[in-house]
Amino acid sequence: MKMNQFGLTKRAVTGFSKIILTAVLLVFYAGAFSQEKNYENEKFVVVLDVQQYWTDKVLSKEVAAEMLSSINALIEKSDPAKVIYITSVHKALTISFKGIKVDTLLNNDFDRNLKIINNNIFVKTTGDAFTAKQFTDFLEQNNAKEIIITGLLAEKCVTATTLGGLSRGYEIYLIPEAIGGKSQKSKGKVIEKLKKDGAKILNGYVLE
């Protein structure tokens, strides 16, 4: 049986070559697979109060459609595990002979045109979503640092949630076209103020 200078037979050399080739191929495929997991947007995305009740109540059909198109485009380019949906409750006052009763009504049906890709859904009872413990626990567990806030309403819950996130040390980003407001003028003023408060504005981000 012939051996080379290292004392290995031809058969052994062939076996080692196959092992090395297999290892190289495994590294290559692992790299290719990991690249498939790179998302265009790696920030966390919060979709705030995009419920049918609110889009019907506060936005025109055209404005709602534009906002939803932008939000859905952002969702598509984001890591599904980092997309978070926040729903809100509102209170109804009932007056009767028995007295005054305050009922908490949950209108958590998302807008029919909103893209839902996971079960990261949390309920808030105040304007600031960061007061919802399950939501903040989720962010902490997933080591969230950068958060994009989208949804409704610029003058109310978007403002409260943006300020809430900034006060807790998060980097907060706003995409104007993915936010609904009472009017374009009003929304513009709010976003400009939030920029001065520390939020970062991503104009045209979903169109890139």
The major beta sheet can be summarized as: 7 strands, mixed
Overall residue-averaged pLDDT value? 83
The number of distinct β-strands equals 7
Number of domains: 2
Content of β-strand: 15-25%
- CATH superfamily assignment of the largest domain? Isochorismatase-like
**How would the global form be characterised?**
globular
Features:
208 residues, alpha/beta, Rossmann fold, 2 domains
Secondary structure blueprint with pairings:
Blueprint: H1 10-36, E1 44-48, H2 52-58, H3 61-76, E2 83-96, E3 99-106, E4 121-124, H4 133-141, E5 146-151, H5 154-167, E6 171-179, H6 184-197, E7 200-201
Parallel strand pairs: 1-2, 1-5, 2-4, 5-6, 6-7
Antiparallel strand pairs: 2-3
Overall description:
This protein has 208 residues and is α/β, with parallel strands linked by helices. The chain folds into two domains: 7-38; 44-207, Isochorismatase-like (Rossmann fold, 3-Layer(aba) Sandwich), CATH 3.40.50. 42% of the residues lie in helices and 23% in strands. It is built from six helices and seven strands; from the N terminus they run H-E-H-H-E-E-E-H-E-H-E-H-E. The protein has helices at residues 10-36, 52-58, 61-76, 133-141, 154-167, 184-197; strands at residues 44-48, 83-96, 99-106, 121-124, 146-151, 171-179, 200-201. Strands 1, 2, 3, 4, 5, 6 and 7 form a seven-stranded mixed β-sheet that branches. Helix 5 runs parallel beside helix 6. It starts with 9 loop residues before the first helix and ends in a 7-residue tail after the last strand. 31% of the residues are buried. Residues 24-30 have low confidence and may be disordered.
